[in-house]
Amino acid sequence: MDRQNRAGVKFGGGGVLSGEREKLNRKERLRRIAMETIDLNKDPYFLRNHLGTYECKLCLTLHTTEGNYLAHTQGKRHQTNLARRAARDNQESAPTDDEPTKVEIKKTIKIGRPGYKVTKLTHPESGARGLTFELVYPEIAQGLRPRHRIMSAFEQKVGPKDPAFQYLVFAAEPYETVGFRIPNSTIDRGSLHSTWDEPSTLFTLTLYFAQDSA
Ligand SMILES: [Zn+2]
């Protein structure tokens, strides 16, 4: 009798627990799948906002972590909105006589941020500090070479206007322009060089800071 009772409690408790665990497992599984298959830098709907949280530009939802956003992309709501968007885009791209400018507009649609890697350097001879930026643009418009620009904290409009920093900005259509905040030390202009490897769509820029500015 007693034993039966305990078994019943145990079973009931286990049922609740495993239900929650299942939900967690499912979320974790979805997050992993998403991390393996989705490059957030190429996701046009992924947005890091200025509050340090993440937004889905498609569903207008807020997410506290990248993992949470990734799980969201596998969810029903996002998938449904994706399907709707795709259906609408297909309709829009069908040629119509009364809207001849549509094709032109489509060309300028931004497809997200490029993948990138930043590496800190120390010059082997002078000991000067430097940085290498590597950006990949697999979908870059044909014949285009990525451009870069150095902007002061006051010139740019995205980050805080902190005089301790300056910004290195990269642009290449149809990608979103990306900016990197770097120390506002004098850049040794002679050391700055960039390469564009068209076959691998890899843009590399290396610079060193002038030593007296360190
Ligand atoms: Zn979404």
Automatic annotation (TrEMBL):
Record's keyword annotation contains Iron: no
GO BP annotations listed: spliceosomal complex assembly
UniProt cross-references to PROSITE patterns, sorted A to Z: ZF_MATRIN
Listed GO MF terms: nucleic acid binding; zinc ion binding
Record-linked SMART domains: CactinC_cactus, ZnF_U1
Location(s) in or outside the cell: Nucleus
Top-rank taxon: Eukaryota
InterPro entries reported in the protein's UniProt record: Matrin/U1-C_Znf_C2H2, Matrin/U1-like-C_Znf_C2H2, SF3A2, SF3A2_dom, Znf_C2H2_sf, Znf_C2H2_type
Entry GO CC: catalytic step 2 spliceosome; U2 snRNP; U2-type prespliceosome
Domain Matrin-type: 54-84
Residue runs in coiled coils: none
Major subcellular location class: nucleus
Keywords: Metal-binding, mRNA processing, mRNA splicing, Nucleus, Spliceosome, Zinc, Zinc-finger
Family to which this protein belongs: Belongs to the SF3A2 family.
Entry protein name: Splicing factor 3A subunit 2
Organism: Hondaea fermentalgiana
